[in-house]
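Document type: protein sequence-to-structure record

Subject area: structural biology

Format: plain text, a pair of labelled lines:
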Amino acid sequence: MAFEEKNILNRLYIIAGCMFLFALAISVKLMNIQFIDGDKYRDLAKENTTKNFIIPANRGNIYADDGSLLATSVPKYDIRFDAVTVSSKDFKENLKPLSEGLSSMFGKPVSYYQNKFRKARADKNRYLLIVKNLGYSDYIKVKNLPLFRKGPYKGGIIVEQRTVREHPIGKIAQRTVGDEAFDRPGYYAVGLEGAFNDLLTGKEGHRLKQKIAQGQWKPISDDNEIEPQDGYDIVSTINVNIQDIAHHALLKQLEYYEAEHGTVIVMEVATGEIKAVSNLGRTSNGNYYEKLNYAVGESHEPGSTFKVMALMAALEDKVIDTSSVVDTGNGRKIFYGKPVNDSKRGGYGEISAARALEVSSNIGLATIIDNGYSKNPNKFINRLKSWHLDDKTGVAIKGEGAPLIPQPGDKKWSKNALPSMAYGYNLRLTPLQTLTFYNAIANNGVMVKPRFIKEVRAWNEKVTVYNTQVINSKICSDKTLNDIREIMKNTVKRGTGRSLYSPDFSMAGKTGTARTEYWYPDWNSNPRYISSFAGFFPAEDPKYSCIVIIHKPSTKRGFYGADVSGPVFKRVAQKIFTESRNVDKVEKIEIPDTTVEKDFEKYYAKLQQPSKTIPNVTGMAGMDAVSLLENLGLRVQVVGNGTVSTQSIKSGELLKKGQLITLSLS
């Protein structure tokens, strides 16, 4: 018995010793946590319960040239409710007025909100969604409703803010303005958004939130730890009215001709400011939207619009003059084993160099350039390079297509290269690069850089102003300029663009019809064309230059530049000027009228005479007589127009205030 009791005691001692050692280990661990690793665990605890959330900065606005918004960042707010943190007293007192306020704002019954809040209270829901996507003004109203005005802890309100990019003019000019990448939120690469992303992007802020339950976080206070700083604003050169005109004119033509895609650019001649860019591509269901920035990024063989450059080179180098005779034969000519054809059956025969451009003769231009430069092709190439046709324009928008002007020694060079280039093949330009040259013709030979931005602003204060940049101060002599401008006017009056001519509105330009994908084996059975028109208006004093390019119109409806692209150019030009306000200055508006002056003097004289009798107003202007009699206290009835012929109360009778007198006017 004694032995068993001793064993039990030993076991108790062992257990007690183990418990002591365990307690000692816990104490050591606690001391270690408290004094040695304390900071580490405090930081870890804080990290698990509180966290700094990034508040994205508002991107700067993008404005049109008149201050209209093209793109802006709009804050949106989601309101949630923490049903646990609110005291029972506050919940009961404010449930009905809070529900009434929400019902008034959002149209749902008061009972709907009361039941919603009660259920959340019963379920201990700490993250109940009340309303989403509120604008700022509605957010402020909700925030100041009963209970919610007490703040996040006493009132249970949880506010989640995010920023949404909106485009007030919709999808018009979408590729020019730019948009957020659909697969990369917050990333901007295209248009003005991408070009000036560093300026538009502000500095992000931070807000401290506390973890409440199930991975949900609640702001600790109403204020941010670090306030975000908004990005700069950009004032673009885009004109909303001109953009709207260009967009709808292009869309109408694309739909009619069932074309694959097209672009329109409108440039202000003197400044190089781009006033409108429309880029529309067809979807699989036949609709059109801004798929790609064809205006800036798509280089292609320009076709006949390049004939202007070719003839200008020949005129400037004095290879020919406008009256030089060119034999185009019967419409077909062989150059180094390759046939070149004109569109007119039977050909144009012998015509002047000027007329060759007016009628867009492929043979005419190929003959001029081949005869003038075949022995020294670099002379022609160097002339084109002096006009920077082999350079990008350097616009800020990303993705500008590279031009291609081949020269002897290149893989694309052959004996046929020179005559082919004369009528717009064997080289590549983007629409914007072509327009930049045409704009220089309109601008008296001054080539200016295309520009999409006017200035950078911060809180309506100018930070940077972008001025006109000159690429080439004079592309050619005044004689060449005058000659080519006259030919471009005649192209519209009596050449390939004659269907566009209007005696009431002057335009100058050049049509273009280029084959595309002609290297495909099915081209003969399924021909594809690029139709274009480039020029400026008004022809005598150009204000705007414009280019229209439409790819792959249905050949069943038409494909020539004058028929497909020309009408878009004409519609844009005419609507710009018919919708522009003309202000006539009136030099002098105070022209004395002796009759009026005499009537006033007569009226004024009678008014100065205090009277107790009815005055004689016969012969006075009706309006003066009425004023005189009413000032005397009479009620006046008027019949007819003009001057007073008779009065119902004879002059000289005693005047009684409030008495009715009838005046007959004639």
About this structure: Residues 581-589 have pLDDT under 50 and may be disordered.
